[in-house]
Write a structure and sequence with these properties.
The complex is a heterodimer.
Chain A lengths: L5 E5 L3 H13 L3 E5 L2 H11 L3 E5 L7 H11 L4 E6 L4 H9 L4 E4 L4 H15 L1
Parallel strand pairs in A: 1-2, 1-3, 3-4, 4-5
Helix pairs in contact in A: 2-3
Chain B lengths: L2 H38 L8 H30 L6 E4 H18 L3 E5 L6 E4 L1 H18 L5 E9 L2 E8 L19 E3 L20 E5 L2
Parallel strand pairs in B: 2-4, 6-7
Antiparallel strand pairs in B: 1-3, 4-5, 5-7
Classes of the chains: A alpha/beta, B alpha/beta.
């Protein structure tokens, strides 16, 4: 994955998503943050990230609904779902709806970057 | 407990374990960020840098441990979702061993799960079967010698899925025999869950070398 690649992180856990974004930025990845589904869709429209890392379990518009809406409008954007250990079924369901893959939280940052790299290559 | 009460307990436990997992994820990323920032600093610029790195590594190690525990708790909670569901005996035995490790450690008895090479799928009440296996393990633990081991093994017996629970011959072949003379090789429990009531383990008391739970 090229340095400067634009990635959107979506999670309602503000501390989690901001800290993860900071760590990715330290590694040369342009990490944007959204803390709910509506904000995520807005940022996608405005910023056109290459990859979206999306939490499945969010209040309001859940990750699966965000995925569906995002894919309708931006089928080329790759989505990696983050699930809890108890919601892997949602991850599998999400892959059926067009997600590139899913990972179980908490993720190891190097594994996440590797997965984002795979998603980036798949989108080219 | 009736099914509604079980489902309620499972739902609350699953929700709380999800929240704990989120807390662990934040701690993990925060410790990771500390490491990242320290790596950016030239050596010996930050006082006690090596001690901070060591403490951070310990935080991450304990977070991983916490995640394992919460994962076990969450899977246990989800076993209460449905009163009748498909269960893989390999996964089930591993989960029960994980959940019961603490009780084994207290008695200095090692617990292990030995999977069958292929998935062994049965239809059952997952929560009540877990409870049954836990009671069975308690039964074995009470009769095993300190320093010995007990295994749960998913296996096929006469072509039918079964769970063997008893001494690990590699670790301590005499666990049960050391207590009292054995009346037989196995206690074979046949039938569906309705017949496998927890109190069946009262039968035979202290001298069983192991338990075999066989499924239709």
């Amino acid at each position: 994955m090229q340095k400067g690649t634009k990635v959107l992180l979506v999670d309602d856990e503000v501390e989690f998503v901001r800290t993860l974004a900071e760590r990715l930025q330290l590694r040369g990845i342009q990490a944007l943050v959204a803390i709910d589904g509506a904000e995520a869709l807005q940022v996608v429209d405005e910023q056109k990230p290459s990859i979206v890392v999306l939490d499945v379990m969010m209040p309001g518009m859940g990750g699966i609904e965000v995925l569906q809406r995002l894919k309708e409008k931006h089928p080329d954007i790759q989505v990696i779902l983050l699930t809890g250990h108890g919601s892997t079924k949602e991850g599998i369901r999400g892959m059926g709806l067009g997600a590139f893959d899913y990972m179980i939280k908490p993720v190891h940052i190097e594994e996440l970057i590797k997965k984002m790299g795979e998603a980036y290559e798949a989108s080219r | 407990m009736n099914q509604q009460e079980i489902a309620f307990m499972g739902r609350i436990t699953a929700g709380l374990s999800h929240e704990i997992n989120n807390v662990l994820a934040i701690i993990k990323e925060s410790a990771g960020l500390m490491d990242d920032i320290l790596r950016l600093c030239p050596e010996n610029v930050v006082p006690h840098q090596d001690r901070i790195v060591k403490a951070s590594a310990n935080i991450r190690k304990q977070v991983d441990r916490g995640v394992d525990i919460v994962t076990g708790l969450n899977r246990f909670a989800h076993s209460m979702d449905e009163p009748w569901a498909q269960v893989d005996l390999n996964e089930l035995t591993a989960r029960i061993v994980f959940l019961m490790q603490r009780f084994g450690r207290k008695r200095r008895i090692r617990l292990g799960a030995v999977p069958h090479p292929e998935p062994l799928i049965i239809q059952t009440d997952p929560f009540r079967l877990e409870m049954l296996l836990a009671v069975g393990l308690d039964f074995c633990l009470a009769r095993a010698d300190e320093g010995s081991g007990i295994v749960l093994q998913a296996r096929l017996v006469d072509g039918r899925p079964a769970i063997w629970m008893g001494a690990d011959p590699d670790l301590s072949p005499l666990i049960f025999a050391a207590k009292e003379p054995c009346p037989g090789d196995l206690l074979v429990l046949q039938g569906d869950l309705e017949h496998l009531k927890a109190d069946i383990f009262d039968v035979g008391t202290a001298s069983l070398p192991g338990l075999l739970i066989q499924f239709r």
